[in-house]
Amino acid sequence: MRRVWRCAGLRWSVDGPVLMWGDGRGSSLGWGKRVAFGVAEGGVRTCVGARGHACPVAAVVSGRSTGVRCEECARLDRTHSVAADTMADDPRPYRVYLAWFGPGMVKVGITRVERGSARLLEQGAVVFSWLGQGPLMAARRAEELLRAALKVPDRIPYADKRVVRAVLPGPGERVAEIRELHERVGRLDAWPESLQRAPFEPVDHTEVFGLAGLAPAVGVVSELVPGGVVSGELCAAAGPDLHLRTGRGVVVLDTRLMTGWELTAAGDGAAGLSVPVRELRDSTVQDGLF
Question: Which one-letter DSSP state was computed for residue 195?
């Protein structure tokens, strides 16, 4: 009987991306490393449960879902969630930040001070800068203020982030957009008094993610399937995404699609990809005049 593993997602450490497994172990990933695995024959993708507890009914979930929880477990997981505004009394300090993912792709968000820049790595932020630090509700008020004043969102779809990673501008241009927004924030009068402002100190993750010289992706894995195989050479990683060099070109694998499946080791002679792949359009090619 072949051994199986359950993926617990991609984590970011000071040394780079790490694939975590259900037993608590991790597999460090580096550029040039071969990422290869198969999905167990006849298997189904099951809910990962909530807040450290297994799903009571082992519900089957869609292979295309990045949430990998059934409706009930998803509801329980959002209990006591900062994102769901159910932790207004959280005494821990928070930071407000601006994150840049590509030209015209800037968002505002908050994260716990104790997490450092982990949240930005998890989101695939190419450049970011802190805006301020203070109590949770003050950080929330600042986030809402900035969304309205700067006309920036608090979320950017991963589909949009992926298509620009291989065509990013130079260092100066990468920083310019959030520099200008940071200066505008400094001129706002409605800034919460309990939130200490932070100076503009941009952090660039281009090298951390391996994006320099990255070839454009030709496709993205849309789901895993029983008996399917994924195999490729890791050439970049950002957020939950692995950019794998395969026989058909660079293909993006969202590691959130791996959770909930029983995975097996793939042999050296395994095919590069035998799972559904959605073709990515070249964002640099204009379809028409308008």
Answer: S
